[in-house]
Structure formats: structure tokens, C-alpha cells
Amino acid sequence: MGRVQLYLFVAVLGMMQVLLLFAGPRSKSDGLAGTAASNTGHGQNPRQSKEGLQWCPDCRGELCARKFLFIVATGRSGSSTLMNMVNQVPGIFLWGENHGALGGIAGMQERFLKAGQDSSDARRVELLQSSQDVVWEWLTPPTFQNDWKRVEVRGFKEIRWNETMVQFIRRSLPCSRLIFNFRLDVEAQSHSDFFKRKQRKPGAEALSTITDRAAALVTRSGLPAFQLPLENFSAPEFTRLAR
Hints:
This protein is an alpha/beta fold. The protein contains eleven helices and five strands, in the order αααβαβααβαβαααβα.
């Protein structure tokens, strides 16, 4: 997705949030049930399918109808290969890195949540749902992808993560799973051609710190996570991951 399209999505998110937080009061029919009806086509709360319950068994509520998958990776850890392997699984499509673009959306949502902290629970859920709508559309698979209309799990791989992004996923995309991809041999990682081209090359100690911070983010997310270091890439591990 191009940068201009991303900016448009962020702008749409902002406008939706402003309307939700500062618009006049709604009738009862436009509350949580109304939000559910707009998502399901029925006047009932959306329920997860059997597959959805397997994907996020502890998730309950209006925000659990859509499934997401994100790769939390460190640089030169084989994340592109991992992404390509995951994209071979029917019903899943992951985009490549977006240079931390989710952080902009997450930061905007965080500011609006603080501004509307006195809003009702129903309004807060509507705000979270509108954020999820934007991310879901942003991650729409390309039309050249085989069976792209049948993709039920959307996401991306990224090496730029922070607490704001992870908490956004926890709040707005609760039916999410993570894959934590890293390298056990940080010394070899520090000598990769990618880092050699940088003016300030991170050493093994710095990469070890980066890996530890990423691992801590994954743990604090509270989301189901699968750890897959580059050194463990193998057919059995990918099979276990696909299950």
C-alpha cells in the first residue's frame, strides 16, 4: 500500500474518532447492538465462528469477529522468509514492513481515548471498532493474491515495535496472534551485510538488548505467541506453526 493511501486511512480514522467522541447523543438502537448490526448484517452481537474460537479462544465481545496475525521480528532474522512461508497457508495474508505505520494510528487513538475518557463504555467500544475497521481495510490483500476474498486472517511483519503499538493491538484487535522471530546467534546477526552498510553498526550486545526488549513486548501483550528463531527454521517447525 502506498504512503498516500496510508495517510488517507489515518485521516479517515481521525475523522471517525472525532465523530464518535464529540457527536451528539444517539438513540439506544445505535449503541452496541447497532454497531454489531453494521458488522454482521443482523441485530445481534457478532459471534465467533468455530475457527475464530480456535484462533482466540479467550476473546469475547464485538471486537473478536476479525482475526489478525503479526510477526514481531528483529533485523536480519529471516522474517521475510517466514512471512512468505506463512502466506502459503490458505486463508492468511501478511504484508511486509510498513516502517512502523501502525504506531501513528495507535498514537492517534491513544490521544482520542484520553480526550474522551469521560465517554460511555458504548462510545469507547465504538471508537475501538472504528479503529479496527480502518486497520482491517488497510490490510486488505492485493487482488492478484489467489483467493484473496477468502482471506480470513490479515496482518504484517515488522521490526519496528513499541508499547503503544502492542497495546493498540490488545485493545482494538484482541483476536490477534503474534509470531516472535529473532536470532539466537546475535554475533552472526551483527555481521550481516545489512548491518555492515549502516554507519552505526549495532554490535552483538546491542542486538541482544533489542531482542530482549522485543521479547518483553510480546510477553506484555498477553496475546498468544509462537517463538521461532531463525536457527530453528525447519519443515517440522513450520508445520507446527501452521497448526
